[in-house]
Amino acid sequence: MTSTIKVSKSALFEMVMAAFEAYAVKHDGKKIVSIETYAELWGKINKQHPFMCSIEHVSVDTSAKKERGGVTPNGLSLEIKKDIASVFGEGYQHIGSFHTHPWLKDEECVPNVLGDMLLVENANSIRKYNLFNFSNADHACEVGNPMITIAKKEYSVALVMTIHATDKSNDVKDGRIESNLFEFSLGNIKLWLKAQVFEHKLTSTLTDEDKKSLDIYRLTKHKSFNLKAFTQPIPIETNLECAFLEDFGYYLKGFGRLTINSANSEYRNTSSAEKRWFA
Fold first, then answer.
1. pLDDT, tens digit, for every residue of 202-238?
2. Half-sphere exposure of 223 (CA within 13 A, CB side)
3. What are 20-76's pLDDT values in tens digits?
4. Residue 131: what are its φ and ψ, rounded to 5°?
5. Burial of 30 by CB count in 10 Å (0-12 exposed, 13-18 middle, 19+ buried)?
6. Domains of the chain with CATH codes
């Protein structure tokens, strides 16, 4: 059974805005740029199978603790936001979470279970090491945390946006990469949007295929993994739909250029930086 996550143009707009701000703008009290950010997702959820939801709204968690290699949301924030959403009614159901993976040029990464330390040299490194995927820590956050119940089955939904500044603009590989993954470009900034639905199943009922799926994001290698837990979040086949990305609504649009390192960034806007013929 294939699940479907639809992302509206408005929701994508809000996610891209949040990702850029956390990546390029130095926040109060921080000596670094390029930090992660976190948000909650809201919209509509079908009441029958197969699982389908439409993400219409994104609320950035300004109270989250944001760092270079991780972000920790504030539980009270979601509690309050759920009550606010209930006042607005239909179309404002809580769907799941969104966070970002910022990567700088020549930043170290550990993309495999062997713990090999490698460098992010360019966008090809992100593709080669699958750095647009959820980490095992991201997957671990779903354990014991189902958000949606449909016909006695429990689910959770997560989106991650990876962002990386390249030396030059290159949109050759833009488009759908997998059923739940898009790559797209704004100027010299490469972005990847990945979506995943997790079905929370009783550990005692897991099939061999379910257990294999637990390692799609290397969950079993995470320090907190416990196969004896009551339930496990199984990644299920997910289709990401976003008309703006599918129809290349951003293609051939002029955009600025970002120069960035771990401590500082410089942005030149479209009028001063864009030299491509079509802009």
1. 999 999 999 999 999 999 999 999 998 999 999 999 9
2. 0
3. 999 999 887 788 899 999 999 999 999 999 999 999 999 999 999 999 889 999 999
4. -75, -5
5. middle
6. 3-273 (3.40.140.10)
